[in-house]
């Protein structure tokens, strides 16, 4: 592995400690360097240290652990998510019980309203999203039943022979009017692409319902870490064989530490020096605001799908965290081409470019690529945890354990 071969001996002492990190003296080499202290990196560090007894150094160029799930108290003392609202949900008992070793949970089912103009009256209203029976009845002033609404939607749905794109998925289910109201503008803002240019998997994340279920997710397990994500990450990484250095990019870490094996959770194209060109990622700018009142929104998130509003959604954390506080904090999300890479962009040409990087990644000795950016997959947190646990199983089968040093 090129990275390990050129690695210099480490000097004593980690980077200065910042929130959520531990600076431990490091005067020997490491078995593993893990780049990225998000879900992918933290889970692998924990597994490798606790199950293999090997020494791990985790570095992150940000000044904190937790990756995009990082949360902290803002100036007013309200717990907020620096990189936008993160709601945990999974159908996997294995993933939920693994994380439960490091956190208690607060049951929480996320609910979202979309602010739209009724096509019937022109009135602006906030209605349940995903589209459900109540959404239709309120928008059109109807009193359809669950049985009625299926045929009502079927009569508006367009015939789509092959569902390929994010437009096909929606117009094939609810027709063009509802597609334009709820999906077209939001998607064009979020991705700077028309839904017809995006893989079907993107809008398929948001189903259409004919019942009155107004939860955003229907997974078996839906809960927030009781003391927040950062507290959970602190516990995941709290192991005598794990050293954490925040504020440290890979380039510094590879010079500073000797290591035998590498886990990379950053962007895969960056690792390979953008050899085949840049993989497209979409970014966001977050506007965090604290309001001098107890509550701001009628629910955890309000979506603004119209193209004229520059942000896509606004979220209020106290719904999710259950925190009691006389003030409240909200975050607006403004999609952007510039900034940290948050979203891989699912479309065929990007998948083809990723395949070329994946082939390089597969051939890279003693190096594992894990997580949303390293495998260019639009994964939720639980999927990243699942991928990290599966990677660990592969490591167990294929990598001989280091003798204790
Ligand atoms: P990350 O969390 O991105 O961690 C990678 C880390 O690697 C970063 O901290 C980065 O600084 C570091 N890094 C990269 N390159 C280098 C380098 N060269 N040197 C050093 N460090 C480096 N999922 C859900 O399940 N529910 C949600 O509600 C949800 N909401 C989301 C909202 C937004 C706005 C976004 C953007 C994502 C959301 N997600 C949600 C997805 C979730 O954030 C990801 O699935 C998860 O955080 C990915 O973990 P990861 O470890 O793969 O990557
Ligand atoms: N989407 C939309 N309107 C909405 C909500 C979602 O068009 O009101 C589309 C949009 O393309 C978005 C995708 O569905 O990017 C997935 O939505 P989700 O809420 O899962 O996005 P995330 O939380 O990952 O940003």
UniProtKB/TrEMBL annotation:
<dbReference type="GO" id="GO:0008767">
    <property type="term" value="F:UDP-galactopyranose mutase activity"/>
</dbReference>
<dbReference type="Pfam" id="PF03275">
    <property type="entry name" value="GLF"/>
</dbReference>
<keyword id="KW-0285">Flavoprotein</keyword>
<keyword id="KW-0413">Isomerase</keyword>
<feature type="compositionally biased region" description="Low complexity">
    <location>
        <begin position="1"/>
        <end position="17"/>
    </location>
</feature>
<comment type="similarity">
    <text>Belongs to the UDP-galactopyranose/dTDP-fucopyranose mutase family.</text>
</comment>
<feature type="region of interest" description="Disordered">
    <location>
        <begin position="1"/>
        <end position="23"/>
    </location>
</feature>
<dbReference type="GO" id="GO:0050660">
    <property type="term" value="F:flavin adenine dinucleotide binding"/>
</dbReference>
<dbReference type="Pfam" id="PF13450">
    <property type="entry name" value="NAD_binding_8"/>
</dbReference>
<protein>
    <submittedName>
        <fullName>UDP-galactopyranose mutase</fullName>
    </submittedName>
</protein>
<feature type="domain" description="UDP-galactopyranose mutase C-terminal">
    <location>
        <begin position="182"/>
        <end position="378"/>
    </location>
</feature>
<dbReference type="GO" id="GO:0005829">
    <property type="term" value="C:cytosol"/>
</dbReference>
<dbReference type="InterPro" id="IPR015899">
    <property type="entry name" value="UDP-GalPyranose_mutase_C"/>
</dbReference>
<keyword id="KW-0274">FAD</keyword>
<dbReference type="InterPro" id="IPR004379">
    <property type="entry name" value="UDP-GALP_mutase"/>
</dbReference>
């Amino acid at each position: 592995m090129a990275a390990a071969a050129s690695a210099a001996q480490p000097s004593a002492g980690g980077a200065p400690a910042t929130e959520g990190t531990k600076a431990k003296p490091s005067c020997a080499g490491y078995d593993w360097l893990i780049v990225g202290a998000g879900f992918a990196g933290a889970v692998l560090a924990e597994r490798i240290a606790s199950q293999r007894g090997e020494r791990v150094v985790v570095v992150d160029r940000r000044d904190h652990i937790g990756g995009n799930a990082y949360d902290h108290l803002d100036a007013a003392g309200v717990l907020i998510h620096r990189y936008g609202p993160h709601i945990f949900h999974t159908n996997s008992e294995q993933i939920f019980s693994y994380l439960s070793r490091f956190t208690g949970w607060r049951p929480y089912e996320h609910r979202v309203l979309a602010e739209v103009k009724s096509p019937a009256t022109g009135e602006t209203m906030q209605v349940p999203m995903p589209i459900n029976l109540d959404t239709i009845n309120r928008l059109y002033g109807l009193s359809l039943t669950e049985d009625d609404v299926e045929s009502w939607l079927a009569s508006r749905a367009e015939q789509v022979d092959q569902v390929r794109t994010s437009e096909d998925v929606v117009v094939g289910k609810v027709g063009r009017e509802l597609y334009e109201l709820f999906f077209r503008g939001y998607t064009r803002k979020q991705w700077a692409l028309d839904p017809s240019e995006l893989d079907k998997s993107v809008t398929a994340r948001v189903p259409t319902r004919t019942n009155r279920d107004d939860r955003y997710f229907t997974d078996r397990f839906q809960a927030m870490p009781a003391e927040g994500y950062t507290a959970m990450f602190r516990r995941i990484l709290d192991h005598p064989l794990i050293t954490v250095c925040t504020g440290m990019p890979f380039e510094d870490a590879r010079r500073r530490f000797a290591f035998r094996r590498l886990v990379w959770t950053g962007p895969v194209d960056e690792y390979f020096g953008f050899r085949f060109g840049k993989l497209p990622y979409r970014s966001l700018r977050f506007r965090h605001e604290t309001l001098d009142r107890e509550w701001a929104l009628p629910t955890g998130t309000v979506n603004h799908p119209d193209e004229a509003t520059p942000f896509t959604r606004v979220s209020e954390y106290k719904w999710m965290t259950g925190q009691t506080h006389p003030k409240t904090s909200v975050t607006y999300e403004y999609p952007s081409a510039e900034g940290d890479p948050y979203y891989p962009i699912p479309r065929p040409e990007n998948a083809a470019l990723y395949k070329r990087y994946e082939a390089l990644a597969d051939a890279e000795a003693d190096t594992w690529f894990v997580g949303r950016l390293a495998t260019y997959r639009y994964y939720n947190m639980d999927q990243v945890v699942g991928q990290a646990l599966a990677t660990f199983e592969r490591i167990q089968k294929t990598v001989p354990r280091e003798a204790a040093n």
